[in-house]
Amino acid sequence: MKEKQTLEKLRQEIDTVDDHILDLLNQRAKLVMEVGAVKAKSHSDFHVPSREREIYERLTAQNPGPFPSDAVRGVFREIISASLALEKPLNVAFLGPSATFSHLAAMQHFGLSASLSPERSIPAVFEAVEKGEAYYGVVPVENTTEGMISHTLDMFMESELKINAEVLLEVSHFLLSRTGRFEDIKKVYSHPQPLAQCRKWLAENLPNVPLVDVASTTLAAQIVSEDYTAAAIASEYASSIYNLKVVKARIEDQVNNFTRFLVIGRKMADKSGDDKTSLMFSVRDEPGILHRMLEPFAQRGINLSKIESRPLKRKAWEYIFYLDLSGHISDLEVADAVKELSVCCQFVKVLGSYPRARS
Ligand SMILES: O=C(O)C(=O)C[C@]1(C(=O)O)C=C[C@@H](O)C=C1
């Protein structure tokens, strides 16, 4: 009896706190709408990744607990997403179909209030943003086990779109089926990449079961939702969409399997204080050129986090280089280094400066 009274009292207190939270959320929403009106007048960008980063960092740093800091980030992810939708409903194109990892990356970055539309290919995502059908696009660029996604890099050769943000997503594969029972599985469907990333686990655990390549993990989940004797390798999110049970979670052979996605838009992103800049350039074919192209960065102590080369399609044995470095293009040192680099280049293109993703 006493416990019941205590419970009731505690729940009343929770209700009072919730009322405060609701009131504060509405106070915040009104302020954000004022910010939106100012931005509309000055034609400024509605989505500001650097400001969002500042909010997350400030709140998680000062969080006294016991509410977990990761949850603070998740809650504010949704508060900001809903606020932004009040300023301007945001259309975001991503590499579809729905429930694939690009969809998850878009949800992670923009929250659940953004309107997310699947596109059938990487060029179609670029096109949707270029034509203004979407404000932003989300495309994969690199995987820790499979390497660079050259299709995305090649798109920047023609496109004038800018990288506005990066998203790091841990890619975990789930074995899903209607019954959730191992013994019912007579076939496994998935996209070739997840099948390759789970090869060892499949050989050990389902050695005689045929593996079937399909166009996406979503299609695999869809097929399996109508076949009680098949299983799909897909994301955990796909299980909720297609009403499937998890036979086995995290079956990828390599732990720490991350994919990096780029958020592309029509304008350059503001400086956040912890940024990366991506460049693309081609150099003249002459002795010592590789050394010279890296010198401007080494001399200024600018850290390079990635260098990648791709063949220039128009000319045999000539290459385009992609470089990721620490800093924003509005930093004097970075701007100077890029200027110096351009002396030994046929062309240099800044693909964008954007906040470094939290790993
Ligand atoms: O500060 C802004 O520029 C806002 O638009 C407000 C706000 C927020 O909810 O705090 C919303 C969206 C932006 O991406 C960043 C922050």
TrEMBL record:
Domain (Chorismate mutase) ranges: 1-91
CDD domains given in the database record: ACT_CM-PDT (cd04905), PBP2_PDT_1 (cd13630)
Pathway: Metabolic intermediate biosynthesis; prephenate biosynthesis; prephenate from chorismate: step 1/1; Amino-acid biosynthesis; L-phenylalanine biosynthesis; phenylpyruvate from prephenate: step 1/1
A GO MF label: prephenate dehydratase activity
Main location: cytoplasm
EC number: 4.2.1.51, 5.4.99.5
PROSITE patterns: ACT, CHORISMATE_MUT_2, PREPHENATE_DEHYDR_1, PREPHENATE_DEHYDR_2, PREPHENATE_DEHYDR_3
Residue ranges of every copy of the Prephenate dehydratase domain listed in the record: 91-266
UniProt-annotated location(s): Cytoplasm
GO cellular component, one term: cytoplasm
InterPro entries: ACT-like_dom_sf, ACT_dom, Chor_mutase/pphenate_deHydtase, Chorismate_II_sf, CM_dom_sf, CM_II_prokaryot, G/b/e-P-prot_chorismate_mutase, Preph_deHydtase
Gene3D superfamilies xrefs: 3.30.70.260, Chorismate mutase, Periplasmic binding protein-like II
Reaction equation(s) it catalyzes: chorismate = prephenate; prephenate + H(+) = 3-phenylpyruvate + CO2 + H2O
The ACT domain, residue ranges: 278-355
Site residues (Essential for prephenate dehydratase activity), renumbered to this chain: T259
Swiss-Prot/TrEMBL GO biological process terms: chorismate metabolic process; L-phenylalanine biosynthetic process
Keyword Isomerase: yes
Keywords: Amino-acid biosynthesis, Aromatic amino acid biosynthesis, Cytoplasm, Isomerase, Lyase, Multifunctional enzyme, Phenylalanine biosynthesis
NCBIfam families membership: CM_P2, PRK11898.1
Role: Catalyzes the Claisen rearrangement of chorismate to prephenate and the decarboxylation/dehydration of prephenate to phenylpyruvate.
Protein name according to UniProt: Bifunctional chorismate mutase/prephenate dehydratase
Lineage start: Bacteria, Pseudomonadati, Thermodesulfobacteriota, Desulfuromonadia, Geobacterales
